[in-house]
Amino acid sequence: MRLHRPPREAAFCLAVCLAATSFLVARESGWAHAAPSAPSAPAACGAWLPPVEGPLVRPFQAPAFAYGPGHRGVDLAAPPGTPVRAAGDGVVSFAGSVAGSLHVVVAHDGGPGPALRTTYAFLAAANVRAGDRVTRGQIVGVAGGSGPEHEPGALHFGLRLGDRYLDPQRLFEACDLTQLVRLVPVDELSAEPWDARVAPSGSLSSGRGAIGSAAGDLVGALGTGLGAAHEVASSGWDAAGTGARAARDGAGGMTQFGAGVGRELAGWGRTAFERSQFGLLSSVASDLGTGLGEWWRHRQECTDDSAAADGSGGSGHLLMAVGGIDSSGAPDDPTFPLDTAALGYQRDEVVYFSYASDGGAYRASHTRGDLHAAGYRLGEQLKRSQREHPGREVDLIAHSQGGVVVDVFLQDFYDAGNPDYPPIGTVVTMSSPHRGAPLATSAADWRESPVGKQVVDAAERRLPVAPASAPSVRQLDEDSSFLHDLWDDRLPEHVDFTTIGATDDVLVPATQVDVPDASKVVVNIGGGPLDDHTNIPRDPNALRVVRSALEGRPPPCVGVVEGLRGVVVPTLITRVEHGLGDVPVLSR
C-alpha cells in the first residue's frame, strides 16, 4: 500500500507542534533551567579538612566559558615533601600521571545527586591507587611536583560538583553542601575542557556578528525538546506500552521471562512507530534538533583565530597513529595519509599502530579481525613506547575504524595508574564510526535473507571492500552487542578527546562519530563524497582542528551555512543508508 504524502502545510504544522509540545513537556518535567539536585551534606560544620596547612597563594578564578582564562582550583603553599591529606572521606577515582604531572582525584559520598570530587594536583608522589577508600586526613601524596600555570612550592587543590568547577575554599565555609549548588549559575557553561555534555545558553556570537538570545532559545528548544518529543511520541505510539512498563518494573516482582517479553514488545512497538510516516518525521526532527544543539555548543566554544597546521606548534609529544580498516604497512611507515609534519611532529616521534599480532608489518586482511584483540595490541604497543621512552607522553590520532580500536583500548585496557602505560596526551579521531556504520547495519540486514545475501556476496567479489562477514564489520553493525557494550562506561578521567567528522562522508556519516564526553567538530572536505572519508587525514580544515586539540585550544569556528550543512547532510545520508536495509526484496 502506498502512503500519501501530507501537504507541506501539514508537515510544517506538525513540526511546529512537535517543537512547542516538546518544549512544554521539558518545562513541565523540570528539564528547562533546573538546578541539579544536591548531594547529602556532611554531618556538621568543619567536616572538611584543608589538604595542607599553608596559606592561599593563588585563588580560584571561574572561567566565563569552557576555554576562557581562569584558575580552576586554588594553590596552597606547600614546600616539597609536604604530606597532602584527603579533605574528606571518599574513594580514589584516579591516581596517575596527566601530561607528565602526578594527580589524585577523590570521589566523595554524595547520595543520588551530582558527584563531588576533590583533586590534588602536581604531586611529587602518590600514596594511593584508584579504588582505594580514604578517610578524612589520610595522606594521599606528597607535594613537590610541577605543572603548567602552577605556583612553585604549592599544591593545586580543586573541587568539582558533577562537571562544574567550584572554589574549593567554600568546602571549609559550608555547613551544608546545598550551599555549593547555589553558587553555580544554572545556565553557566561547564568549564570541563572539550566537554559536550552540558548545553549552554545565552547569545551566539562570533567575529562575523551575533545572533540574538531568541535564536538561542529556539535552538535550545529544538535541540533538547525535539528529542524529548520523539521519546514521548515513541512511548505514546508504543503498541506494547503495558509490556514496556512491566519490563521496567520487573524488579518489583515480575519474572525475568515477563520482563524480557515486555522489552521485546516495546522494541517491536517502537520499530513500528519509527517506520511510520509520522514516526519518520519525528525521528528526523529529533536528529536535526540534536545536531543543531551540537553546533550551538560548538559556536559557544570555538574561535575564529585558530592557527593552520603548517608544521609549527603541536604538542611536543610522541604520536601513535592508528589506521582504519583495509589499511596496511609497517610501524615506521605511514599506514594512512596523515600529515604528521603539518601537525608539528618530527619523523622520529611518530609510530604507526600495527594490527599484526607481532606488532610488525601488516596487511589489509589483518584489519578485519576482532576489534577487542586490536585494542589489546594497541595497549601492548604503547607499553613498548613506555619502555623505550619512559614517561614520554603519547598522543593518539586515529582514522576510521582505528578510532574504535582506540575506544576499546581506553575502555577495556588502559589504566592511568599502571606505570607500564605511557601518559596519554590528546586523543583525536577522524571519521571514526564510534556509533557504528549504517552500511554495516544494512549489510547485516541483507545477509539475513537469501536474496540479500546473494547481492552482498556478489558486491564483495567485485568491489575492493571488506566482506560484511568479517568480524570487525559485524562489530560495527549498529545493533551489535560489541557496540552496545562499548560505551557502558565513561571515558577515563583526564582524557582529552576530540572527534572529527566530514560533512559529505558516506562511509561514516558525521552522525556516527559522537563520543560521550568528547568535543565534536564537523568539517567540509574538498572533493567528492567518496573522497571525504579518505582525504580527511590530510585535509587543511581537519588538520586545523587537530592542531587546536593538540595545543589545548578552542576548535576553529564553523560558519552558519557550513554548520547547517554539517547537520542536515549527514542526517540525510544516515537515513538513506538505514533505508537500504529495509528494502523488502533484500531484507526479507
Description:
- It contains 16 helices and 18 strands.
- It is an alpha/beta fold and 588 residues long.
- Among the domains are: 127 residues, Glucose Permease (Domain IIA); 201 residues, 3-Layer(aba) Sandwich (Rossmann fold).
- Strands 1, 2, 3, 4, 5, 6, 7, 8, 9 and 10 form a ten-stranded antiparallel beta sheet that branches. It has a six-stranded parallel beta sheet with strand order 14-13-15-16-17-18, with helices on both faces. Strands 11-12 form a two-stranded antiparallel sheet.
- Strand 15, helix 8 and strand 16 form a beta-alpha-beta unit.
- The chain is globular and about 75 Å long.
- The relative contact order is 0.10.
- The N terminus is likely disordered.
